[in-house]
Design goal:
The chain has 452 residues and is α/β, with parallel strands linked by helices. It folds into 3 domains: 132 residues, 3-Layer(aba) Sandwich (Rossmann fold); 165 residues, Rossmann fold; 133 residues, Helicase, Ruva Protein, domain 3. The strands form 5 sheets. Strands 2-1-3-4-5 form a 5-stranded parallel beta sheet, sandwiched between helices. A 5-stranded parallel beta sheet has the order 7-10-13-6-14. Strands 8-9 form a two-stranded antiparallel ribbon. Strand 11 and strand 12 form a beta hairpin. The chain starts with a strand and ends with a helix.
């Protein structure tokens, strides 16, 4: 366990370091309260042994400030003054236990062992609560911010009615999750939910993809094929990035929405379909209409009920909830036992602008958990883009020197991995030992740098 010893007596700090170190604990020391708080802010502890009376900031003030900063370690107060009232006060203010000086080595170890057992039980309870919360979260829609909750509430209300819905928001903000919620909360939940990204399919194939085609309708059409509208018959069709549709296809989509029927390519017979359409876009469709790139009549047809999803940078208070959600998911998926992030790592996540929104956060958490050897994700495990955003590059007049810490670090890291693999004839287990990495972290980096 990671234990911080806070005491102004050098001899006691040394004695406790020897006692706890002999039990295999990782110990750090601080001679005063201010130093202790700074060390805990940089790297939290599992247990804190803190003297009650110290010059400057006393132990109770340290305890109060640490708890006010959301510190989660178990704090054991120490005192040589035999003050029972102080002990009771410390426990009321959040201390785990109280040690009376002088104490024997076995007394210290007993209290620390009890604290460790309690912390282990607490972590198990936290993980169980998070797993339950993850199962209860609607389609992974996590967050308590007012703007996000408003979007969910509108989705739940409109789910009961057949009105067409337009979901707007930046890429990665969770538009498909909202569409899925509308489907699952409505009367069509037992039927199919079919999703298509209108910008991901080549234009010449998109009409056939949506409406199907008859045999021989074009080169390669060796048989009849149903389109996505027919696949979603009775259910919901989610048209993601509808703003990417070419204008000629917008006309056919409008007809399908108005008349409730589709006509496959190469077939003169229309087919009736009963489809609830939910559309989404990251574009400003009003501007697209004014520019003539999106039909006004189709815009009004899909924009019956609009749900605006906020960007992650506009709902930063949801980041801790999302992090806990993704930690729970990846613990189960990757067979890990990560309990969370250090306060320093969480601060970087809270300060980052998240251009890729929730999808980017999910990727960052997965990557960081894979690279973590212990139970906590720290700053060193985060990608450089998060903890060193916008690293500058500078070129001198006489030499072209890239000063980007991110790129230079990645270049060095890749070179070291290549050299280690060469020295071990490709033995990744031995290479991981040479590189001082876990085997799992090395495999991830090999994949990241394309060294497979």
């Amino acid at each position: 366990m990671n234990i911080l010893i806070v005491d102004d007596e050098l001899g006691l700090r040394h004695t406790l370091t020897l006692i706890l170190g002999a039990e295999g604990h990782d110990t750090r020391v601080a001679s005063d309260g201010e130093t202790a708080l700074r060390m805990l802010a940089e790297r939290d502890a599992d247990v804190v042994l803190c003297d009650l009376r110290m010059p400057g900031m006393d132990g109770l003030t340290v305890l109060d400030k640490y708890r006010a900063g959301a510190g989660r370690a178990l704090v054991i107060m120490m005192s040589a003054y035999g003050d029972d009232d102080a002990a009771v006060d410390a426990i009321k203010r959040g201390a785990y236990d109280f040690l009376q000086k002088p104490f024997r080595a076995d007394q210290v170890l007993l209290v620390v062992r009890k604290a460790i057992e309690r912390e282990g039980l607490r972590q198990q309870v936290v993980l169980l609560h998070e797993e339950i919360a993850a199962l209860r979260a609607p389609n992974g829609l996590v967050g308590h911010s007012s703007a996000f909750q408003q979007a969910i509430n509108v989705a739940r209300k409109v789910a009961k009615h057949p009105s067409t819905v337009l979901i707007t928001g930046e890429s990665g903000s969770g538009k498909e999750l909202i569409a899925n919620l509308i489907h699952e909360a409505g009367p069509r939940a037992s039927a199919a939910f079919v999703a298509v990204n209108c910008g991901a399919i080549p234009e010449h194939l998109l009409e056939s993809e949506l409406f199907g085609h008859a045999r021989g309708a074009f080169t390669g059409a060796v048989g009849e094929r149903s389109g996505l509208f027919e696949e979603a018959d009775g259910g919901t069709l989610f048209l993601d990035e509808i703003g990417e549709l070419p204008v000629p296809l917008q006309v056919k989509l409008l007809r399908a929405l108005q008349e409730g029927e589709v006509r496959p390519v190469g077939d003169n017979t229309p087919r009736k379909v009963d489809v609830r359409v939910v559309a989404a876009t990251s574009r400003d469709l009003e501007s697209e209409v004014r520019a003539g790139r999106f039909r006004a009549d189709l815009f009004y047809r899909v924009n019956v009920v609009r749900i605006q999803l906020p960007a992650l940078r506009d709902r930063r208070e949801d980041i801790p909830d999302l992090v806990r959600h993704f930690v729970t998911i990846f613990n189960k998926r990757l067979a890990l036992r990560v309990t969370g992030l250090t306060p320093a790592a969480m601060r970087f996540l809270m300060d980052y602008t998240w251009p890729g929104n929730v999808r980017e956060l999910e990727n960052v958490i997965e990557r960081s958990m894979v690279l973590t050897d212990g139970t906590l994700v720290d700053v060193e495990h985060l990608p450089a883009s998060v903890h060193s955003p916008g690293a500058p590059t500078t070129s001198g007049d006489d030499e072209d020197l890239d000063l980007s810490v991110k790129r230079r670090t990645e270049t060095l890291e890749r070179a070291l991995i290549e050299r280690a693999l060469q020295q071990t004839s490709g033995n990744r287990t031995r290479a991981a030992r040479l590189l001082d990495l876990s085997h799992r972290a090395l495999l991830y980096k090999i994949k990241e740098y394309g060294l497979e």
